[in-house]
Write a structure and sequence with these properties.
The structure is a homotetramer. By secondary structure, chain A is of the alpha+beta class. Chain A has three domains: 2-139, Voltage-gated potassium channels. Chain C (Four Helix Bundle (Hemerythrin (Met), subunit A)); 154-246, Helix Hairpins; 262-386, Jelly Rolls, CATH 2.60.120.10. Chain A has 16 helices and eight strands. In chain A, the strands form two sheets. Chain A has a four-stranded antiparallel β-sheet. In chain A, helix 1 (2-12) packs across helix 4, helix 10 (154-179) packs across helix 11 (190-201) and helix 12 packs across helix 13 (269-278). Chain A is extended. The relative contact order of chain A is 0.06. Chains A and C meet through helix 2, helix 7, helix 9, helix 11 and helix 12 of A and helix 10, helix 11, helix 12 and helix 13 of C.
Chain lengths: 388, 388, 388, 388
């Protein structure tokens, strides 16, 4: 039983051990979520709603069934979490049930059951069903990243928002004072003026409300200019924070892996940091082609996990963990001359050709080592051009 | 008497010695200011104005009373300023009274007294009352930061604004020339054309004024494109300057604190600079939970001020200034196994788990020291997993 | 025959060996492509279409003829590619024919032949002819750069787009719920609401659809503010990635060239990296003036390829590969005193005066070497001011 | 005569030797130019035009007279240029006359003389008079900076513009195809569709032209999103380039000055580079107050040019070139205790308090030297708090 439960945990939990089955489950769930969103959106178009009503209902029942079973399996198997956070059969499961992701899962199907018993506004229900898009959080990591950005940049963000709100309130107050008599319907109160203020300061500029007095236009034009700069602040802070955060997540993962590459074993921690920034992670399923003969020689691959088969003319050669391939084309500036295929599930660190060249230039000892291996490989094969 | 005055100073002055009373006062004032803004904004909506008139008036009287007393206390106690800027009983107080923050305080209630005696336009008064939002300046620091940004980036900002104004004037002149005959009411003068120019160059684009001649559209489209780039300049300059300035303020504060952490005592000034960038400041009130059992092991805490209680199974252990906690979870990659509570008002320097790992990788001696302490802690406790 | 084919290859293939003929061909093709775009655009204006119909048709026939011949020549000569990617007479040519650039070339003229036999919607055809603008890809490299940016920044971009789409869907759902009854024609379905959502979140703000209920305006204003920050993310990611990528392409090219400059031969790889960032590549056709007497002394030139003639009063002096000129003006802060002309096709690395000064300050040995050469040059010429 | 001519040159030429007279002349000219722009703009408002006609004409005559005399003096005195670019009495002056700044000067008054003899369209003339704003170029340096940015960033800018134009043309073609039948007046030709395309892609979004077909809205929404990212590229490239360029101009000037400060004489070139980034240039006229007693101790001053008087209680002390002041307040964290006044025209390098503290932390030898001087100063004065 625990073995089955453990197996279920691995399948339903994204990020757990990667198997074909768990990957398939992830893809199925993502597809189902996206289809749900499309269906909810389409359903609101009356002409479609009428025509496909039966299909829409059937799909809804199917989705709710799947989401319910998925939720049940998650609650049942969460005690298998290898980080042992939910290990207790009762309190552990309760703790899991109130975690944000589990609550989102629950909200995805619970309203349906309510609607069966209670008479709820259908439109309200539809908006609720749109929340299913949040189930994607589990797979993309984007929202988690965004949360980190908000946390880390909270000080400048808060400062910027304070300034924005002050400008909005003051500017709207002034415009209310200036335009009220000329346009009592559009600037009749400060909240009305704030609607204009938001549309203007965000540069949306619907044009449904526009100052018409000369003084109103002057204040509008000049204060707005100042405001625009202020309203660009949070966007800029978020944007730079977001890009940094995404790169940093990658970086931390990569750094831990670079130290395992034998070629880099003699480098210092700081040099490893530098190289880690240049490398990116790539995976391949068994049978996937990593390098195709005739392609551009644009990168070098370090094998972290798994084995690859190099299709030399003299017969296939197997490379495995710790070895690298793809360097000959870069060193001798020729397109790929062999095809390399993954034999098992593989993970690679990939280095761009330009970065590889710079790296060799900066580390003469690396250069020497790489050239020595290249010489062996060419000799072993007999014809330089026929190597990787 | 001076002792009471000193006590009052500590309470009314944000940023002075942090006590429960002074923090409570700050929160009360911020709440009152925000409520005032909401009330002024709401009051302009006629339907509300009539219904809640009595309440609005009572609230206004109450606010003015509080602001008046606050102003009096500030003027009275400003001589206690520890930086001794306003030490003289008469000239010192006068000097304080003309400082920007004191003027804002005065403007917050003075118009009310005027309105009692003189007959002032009510709407004008309302806009004045909105200025109370500027009293928040004292608490947020955002406007001070913004001022620094304007000062530091004044050269590029001035250059950018010169270019923007030149483009606006020239473009409006050309559009006036091209569109005047076709739309005498919208482009009848250069100031009229400038209203279009501002709406276009800031990308607000209300659409109330649009060129209609072919030549006007062509010039509009092409010159606008150039102008857009120019109008993005000040926003970009402000945004990057603002983010830098906020981080720099943090940094300077942090730097001075890092040198006090015993673990970092053997590092050079440059290494301290590097670490200071990674740390952030965090405070806790007495009784606050700093780490909760079962949470993610995402950070390490250095105690700068105060004491914390570690809730070990074998009984509580107290850590104090100079010590750190939260490292075991990171080292052994396990969630928090104990709860840590602040015993007194605490200040911490917080280091993210990823940064901690990088730091250890780059400083082998730090790594050794941290591992030595960790070993002691585990041994002392007996069960590794049951430590912090 | 292969020699003619090789010659043709060099002419039609941008980026192959640069000769006057191949450069002329490139300019002719770019001009033809741009003229085509202008013609297609103009043709849709009815008044013009009628008047110039005959000319437009003739031009179309001419363009199609040129594009057809060009395509034929490319297919015929692609086997000469020095990277030997398409070396096989049949399969190599087929492989070339399915490469993206070749497909674009084919699409540029094929629809014309179809339209002769089949009756196609003329307007549809015109849009197809606009695709000819993609033929510029071959010459600008911009789209290739953009492709690289999308590939490298794919993770943050994908994360940002996930967030944007979620916000769009949820926001549109809420607005549909709030505005449906008030404006059944504008917010009658979620897809309708999404049209408003896109116009608002991208800050385009047409104003054709605007919320009118109080709640709709409030949600619109506040959620929009959040959305704006999110919609700025991909733009910011693309912009910074694009600028980096363009600079990086330059950098990689430059780096390889700096190592060849004799003056820098004693520098380490890291120092070369630093200098490479400061240099930019410049070319000159035979007879072109590189430095004009009396100009500002704003840069220093290293000759990578070709020869230049320095017009000294004592007669012309020839400098060639590996030598540099233009340093005397910078060292002695005087405007150019001689004119330097390219004798052959030249490539230079250009260093700005300010960077040159900083470089000398940071590398005393370089400074010494440069001063030694300067002294020789002045002595050789007799009058310091009359040198380059 | 040449002495008078030289004196005139110094007065009329911005950036030449700074005297009170030349500074006054600059301020007068800038004021006159700005007033001219205001007048031209105001004149187009019919109500004003009638009322102030006589004044406007008198002002125009006066301005033209001043601009003519100024132009004459510039042409006459340009031979005095210390860089000896225009030294020849005839060809030198001709060369100066065709330089961009001289052409702008000529265009500022020449049309007036033409209008006296020839009958020119008055509105056209007005637009020409607006060009006088370009005369500010001589004083602000902003346009020169912008020119440098365009030159340096020309590659990414050109690439971005190629992409933008391709997107605009293709998108407009598609929208023309989709919307032509539904809105023949708004999307009747590709140029018409391009007007929509520009308004949308720049996010101006007037709303005068909007797609109304479902397919048109879908293509509009999705392609627009892509386009927005592309249209942000040039703005971002310009903005970052502009900020860098402005800082770099400052930096180059500063770097050359830092080396002259005795305190920094023992630093290496790289350390000087680091410090140069932190310093900014500040000037003071004779009699100006540099530090006012009681101000915040926010910066340290190095004297580059001129003398200052320190108003100690024991009588004034004079500091001059190479010395620094303002460090005691920072070291002992007290507000300014003395007032420092410029005795002559002064130039300072200013270092912020935070940067000064960091600098001392990173350079123990500097710290020692600064503390030694501080000790002497305090001893000399007797009371620590009463020093600078």
């Amino acid at each position: 039983m625990p073995m089955i439960r453990n197996r279920v945990f691995e399948i339903v939990e994204a990020g757990a051990k990667e198997t074909l089955l768990s990957r398939g489950f992830d893809i199925f769930m993502m597809g189902l979520i996206l289809t749900n969103v499309v269906v909810v959106v389409t359903e609101t178009v009356e002409s479609h709603a009428a025509r496909y009503e039966a299909f829409f209902y059937a799909f809804e029942v199917f989705s709710v069934a799947v989401f319910t079973v998925e939720y049940g399996l998650r609650i049942w198997s969460c005690v298998e979490d290898p980080r042992r956070r939910y290990i207790h059969p009762v309190t552990g499961r309760l703790k899991y049930a109130v975690s944000p992701l589990a609550v989102i899962d629950l909200l995805a199907f619970l309203p349906f059951y309510f609607s069966v018993f209670i008479d709820v506004d259908l439109r309200f229900l539809r908006v609720f069903r749109l929340l299913r898009i949040l189930k994607l959080t589990r797979y993309s990591g984007a929202i988690e990243t965004l949360g980190n950005v908000f946390r880390k940049e909270s000080k400048p963000l808060f400062a910027a928002i304070t300034i924005m709100m002050s400008i909005l309130v003051l500017l709207s107050g002034v415009m209310f004072f200036l335009e009220k008599d000329a346009q009592p319907e559009a600037f009749g109160s400060i909240p009305h003026a704030m609607w204009w203020g938001m549309a203007t300061l965000t540069t949306v500029g619907y044009g449904d409300v526009v100052p018409i007095t000369t003084l109103g236009k002057m204040v509008g034009a000049f204060v707005t200019l100042l405001g625009l700069g202020m309203f660009a602040l949070p966007a800029a802070i978020l944007a730079s924070g977001f890009a940094q955060e995404v790169k940093r997540r990658d970086f931390t993962v990569t750094w831990n892996l670079v130290a395992r590459v034998p070629l880099f074993s003699r480098l210092t921690a700081i040099e490893i940091s530098e190289i880690a920034e240049l490398l990116r992670l790539q995976t391949a399923m068994p049978g996937e082609t990593v390098i195709r003969k005739g392609d551009k020689e644009d990168s070098l691959f370090f094998i972290l996990v798994g084995q690859v088969e190099v299709g030399l003319d003299s017969g296939p050669v197997v490379l495995e963990r710790g070895e690298y391939f793809g360097e000959l084309g870069i060193l001798y500036k020729k397109p790929r001359m062999v095809t390399v295929t993954a034999k098992s599930s593989c993970q690679f660190l990939v280095l761009d050709a330009e970065d590889f060249n710079l790296l060799l230039a900066q580390h003469p000892d690396l250069h020497e080592e790489v050239m020595r291996v290249a010489a062996q490989r060419i000799e072993g094969e007999g014809i330089a051009g026929e190597n990787v």
